[in-house]
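Entry type: protein chain
Record version: 2
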Amino acid sequence: MFKKILIANRGEIACRVMETAKKLGIRTVAVYSDADSGAKHVAMADEAYRIGPAPVSESYLQIDKIIEVCRLSGADAVHPGYGFLSENPHFVEALDKEGLTFIGPSAQSIRAMGLKDAAKALMEQAGVPVVPGYHGDNQDLRFLKSQADCIGYPVLIKARAGGGGKGMRRVDDPEEFASALQGAQREGEASFGDGRVLIEKYLTKPRHIEIQVFGDSHGNAVHLFERDCSLQRRHQKVIEEAPAPGMPDAMREAMGAAAIKAAKAIDYSGAGTIEFIADVSEGLRADRFYFMEMNTRLQVEHPVTEMITGEDLVAWQIQVASGEPLPKRQEELAISGWAFEARLYAEDAAKGFLPAIGTLSHLRLPENQARVDSGVRAGDEISPFYDPMIAKIIVHGPNRQAALGKLLASLETIEVAGCVTNAGFLAALCRHAGFSSGDVDTGLIDRDLAQLIAEPEMPDDVIALAALASLGLTRPRTGSDPFDRLAGWRIWSASRQFALLDVAGDRREIEVHALGDREFSVHLPGGAATYNLIAIEGPRITFDRDGGRQSAVVVKDGDELTVFFQGHAHTLGLPDQLTTDDETGEAGDQVIAPMPGLIKVLNAAAGDAVSMDQPLIVLEAMKMEHTLKAPRDGIVGEVLASAGEQVLDGTVLLTLEADDAAAT
């Protein structure tokens, strides 16, 4: 067994590996970039070493620097986590030359499955069913379009070296093929250094079902059953579950056998995942699943497999890498109960799942009924350099409905301020009738997106608490001064104050009267209501309104207030009292960078006539491309950025002439 392991990764997966290593009595070494110098994984490790600036190409992808840290620290093995160097055969070979053990498969196995086209050809030879498509070397636009025309639309363009939904485009119309191909190639080149693609038939009602496999150096291989990863947005997984709902025994057996066949075809050792796409237009059938790809690493969603099997997959990885045989045979593995994992991201679901950045000024994650894998803490920054995951929320129950109920209850306790998150979207998914019943496919989110991202109606109680907080009337009492107990009160009459709030873009002036000790009358659209603040413990406020007692959490972050109430998060703005509505009216005349990023494509010039929602700029940020569109019809005034330029959050990239100028 190893004495010291270096984790060549960051965030929650680095923390996850460290937890198991410490249970096994193995010391851990962290590496970090300048952006991560105060990160949680650095604090958890026994030793930590800086390896470069924030960009991954200058830090976490620097093989020589990681090997140098192995020498300095005396680490005898390296765990790659997922992403970064986890599927890089050159990294494995470099470690081999230094006499260091890579906790994962061989370089040969990684190469065999590293390119989707070659992997599919190999699987066809091994007798594993594959999706109809073109997996060859010819990358000419006309040729690829002819292949797509033969396959029949819709088709899926996929970066052959890709993963995580990057370099992937669905094409429904032949006229859109060329632009979709260019986008997939750019993203593939940026993310993996390989812009080559393959073309596949897009199944109209597919389920994404994957099988967890494990092999060892003694020729053994097992599977640890399936995970259903069909709930996806932008080809990235959102909620995963195990086992797959409605899975017939015959299909589970067939998929498991195919997965083991795939692993043995490349003499696989370590943890791997065989990803299949299943055509469920006629239900789950043993003859309607197809190999998509193999991930030669631990998956983000591995905890759901751990929950239903009771096995620690990281411990398995370490044991197998140290030369031991698999801990269990196939007949010793069984499914127990049901598990879900939800990925909590810093992203704005209502704005096309745009990744967000910010400082986590307030963070409360589920306790007791959920396992939480996270690499951040309150006060940490979500930066533009890395994946914006905040945490993985994992639950287990005796059956699907019980587990899903625990997941929803857990999501409703999440409190994050300082950065927009997808927590409300995840909770809406759990309430979705189709998902709740197990009727899922990869198109569910797109079909019902409007319903899933709809903002909940803001209760009067939320507006009232925000008004009180904006006036400083919810601050905890700090001393023994009796006047401190009479916030807002005046000697001659009840005080009359006005709170200015931005409620969903609508400026509202809320009248507040102080009636006595922490008792206020708040004038709301539905009439005046009396609020008695029973207890104030930090951001948590227990209040009585007209005889009904409830509690909420109110957090101020800059010019925003976030109120967590009854399982929902509501954000209200605190407008500058000196500005007017007219001063904010220029938003429709500008295209602004929503986050720091690199301008990849600029499709506009001064004087161009554009229409509303016309794509104008492609911005690359957080390893993904984001298309910025025209906010209205008009004429381009100034172009203030250029292709290849790195821009900051909030930078004005392009302006449109004023409406009156455009009309003349």
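Comment: Residues 155 and 202 are 5 Å apart (CA to CA).
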